[in-house]
Amino acid sequence: MKNRDSGLAPEQWVDAFADFLYSYAITRVNSKEDAEDIVQDTFLAAFKNAATFQERSSVKTWLTSILKNKIIDYYRKKSNSSQSYDAYLDETEDSFENAFFNQGNYGRWKQDINKNYLSESTDDYILSKEFYRIMDLCLQKLPSKLRPVFVAKYMLDEDAEKICKEFNITSSNYWVLLFRAKTLLRSCLEKNEITL
Amino acid sequence: MEFINNLLHNCEETSLNIVKSEETSLSVSEWLKMKFHIAFCKCCRNFGKQTKVMDKALHHHFHTDFSEDATKASPELKDRIKKNLKKL
Question: pTM of the prediction?
């Protein structure tokens, strides 16, 4: 059985899918220029590999999966690849711990974590536009070294093993990266809710 | 005493294990330590609830189809891509 869109010639892909791919990319990267470059790279890669495209999936799904990988590459490049994750985690350990945990006291939370909208939230709220705006802001504030792993996990639904291989990190580093990213994100969400 | 204090007060280790446990299974000793700590620590209990909500929100965030109020690609971009494709 043929998919509806697989009958399109590659020349028609741009008109058919550029809008969709662009709107997907623009919500996930920081600038218009970056989104445009990523969309262009996606089409170039797709064209070069058009022969390997299998009609088992739709063209749209196939292009989207190429786009996702381009977005991960984009974050990976931005994450200051010259520094290893080991060195990064070592270097930032003190400032992270000092910000959140009381080192003189076995590592208790410095600030109490109280029940707030995040503990009690209804689905309606966390799916609202308002919440999305805040979350976007907080995601952009994450250190560039933490973001790519986070994006790979949630955007591509990759599991720990695959991400460790892709980013060449040990699993214990992966848990620390994830833990720090979540702690920072949580704290940012909390702060923004208060000032709303 | 040191051991008990560490067990009761080490929120850092516990919260790291909470994040880890969302994705993989912990060793028995890690799991026991986490459960024991959570039983006495409201902050870590709340942390656990909050990371769960964040998980759900993040997942949804990256998978929403924005087709309804999509931002259109500019005609210039489309032309540029078509031009570059011809060069291949």
Answer: 0.81
